[in-house]
């Protein structure tokens, strides 16, 4: 409307030679109103109105209304002024007011960008996180648009002063009109083209990168070998397979615009490492570029993206089968294979997609990698043993002693002089030879049920008298004395080591410890 009125005013002047005051004032006032509306749209978007929140604070509303009224007031006086000095004063005041508003827009926009980035880093993988990703991307685009909006008047003034001559002022006016008209129509045209032609071919992506060579298990993070279809994603937090796929769909929504699932192999190697094989190099490149740009901007939960060592569905599936075997195909952590939108069993996938010669080659690679790791581990020096892990020679136990059911701590009083070890005596009970019920396994440890040689007896505390009960046929034990009917214990000085047989039970005393063998 403003452009039409301005063109009409110029046509009237060119035809009649007389300037129409009504038309001239009208298009100038509409120009001031348009500037105010553009300024308010930038201000409201930077404050997050209808994007991050549904309403504004009272102070924000008052600030927007005050700027609009003052700017319109100054614009009206600028249009109605009659002297150049007065018009310049009103114009300068209006520029200062708009500059103050520009400063508020920059501060509010950066604050909302930081707020969105913090919310994304703390949010789990969900639909709400996807909305935050889209809003953050929109705010980054909005920042560049606002930068162009601020710089454009300076560029136009520079062209008017240095490039455009005085008799070609129409060129300056055409540039001004093009600046306000072209972006709006470009956005409408782009939306119309996307609706008619569908997604843009990924092979024409402007950020396509070609490289060659691989180093180790992965390629460079910022490059992707031509023809590669498999990439490795490393996240900053533990995620399930479904959560990661949902987050990947939010980061790269253009991959799902068609009616085809963009990947056919998904393997969650650990809670923070995901291997994905895409059905084409173009899809892989598009996702790789989008995720890499997000990582560069420090956004999202993906911390690293790299080219995988194995490329293609057959190699990845064969590598997993060569490492995990048949049992690995039944595990809960096994990869998922898709054919279209349908998930297929892993056994059928191995039989259908992995050739036998490829599987044999992958098995050889797995064995070589395992042998190299074992050789490297063997060459590393073992850490020195600590005091808790060092074992004394006397504590070495045989398999029979380690499986013994009873272990009793013995006194740790050192022997005054070394003596030869001796074999435990086998007492005879009711005409049957009975094995020794207790032997010394090591100094400080006694084990029942072992018939190995014992260390020499060591002096201990005084022997104690033990009440076994009274009755006919009970022999007097050697090393113990028959006591009265009352149960008590008293020190005696007898020769220890001779077992006592009582009704099929053998009682043996060694170094102050009683051992009962039924």
From TrEMBL:
**Pfam families hit by this protein:** GOST_TM
**Residues of the GOST seven transmembrane domain:** 4-171
Q: Which domain of life is it from?
A: Eukaryota
Q: Which InterPro entries match?
A: GOST_TM (IPR053937)
Q: Where is the composition biased (Low complexity)?
A: 374-405
Whether Transmembrane helix counts among this entry's keywords is yes
**Has keyword DNA repair?**
no
Q: Which residues cross the membrane?
A: 61-80, 92-111, 140-159
Report keywords, A-Z. Membrane, Transmembrane, Transmembrane helix
| Region called Disordered, residue ranges | 370-405
Name of the featured protein: Gpr107 protein
